[in-house]
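Following the same procedure, backbone shapes were mapped to integers, as reproduced here:
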Amino acid sequence: MSNEGVPPAHQDQPQLMILLGWFVIFGCAALALSILIADFVVPDHDWIADTISDLGAGRFEFIVDIGLYTYSAAVLSAALLAAHVHMGDRGWSIGILALLVFGLTVFLIGARNEYGDADSDGWVIHKYLVYALGAAVATIAFAMAKGLRRADDRYSYALQGFGALWVVGAPVFFFLPNDIDGLYERGLGVLASGILITLAIFFIRRGHALGR
């Protein structure tokens, strides 16, 4: 007898939350480390003037690409966690979709060599990916804040704070002179990672609380 409506055997998996939560943090750290390594390895690189995209092209592109792919997997892990621990409103569902867009966008940015060295194979989509990434990060911050408030106001305030800084700061990047936009882009990366780490901390702590 078929019964697709049967409830799941287990509503929550604490160990899964903890494992994936730490992987989200690891992904953020891996990207930061790959950028730091590339800053020293790539010849004639100016970390203040040159963007992360500049590091993702040329002979040593694999260094940042590894970081980007790991970061993409971390974002998708956050989406998986958010779907597993749904905090109960439409905004949370929108946030899950935005996490998927964010993760896939980061992957495509790493996979498409359309930056730094002026290479472009076929249709150039880099700028559209950047726009999608910017919109996705802002959506995650504000759409998921209400759901996190059910657990602890501090998570909600953190997401909204990072989101507000992102909404104000991200558009400025497109108008900056080339001699400082690399440093500014790294600051935006800290904001995006701050959003992900806030989510990760929530999932890790929830996992520990449920596992007691």
In short: The chain is about 70% helix and 0% strand. The chain has one domain: 14-116+124-211.
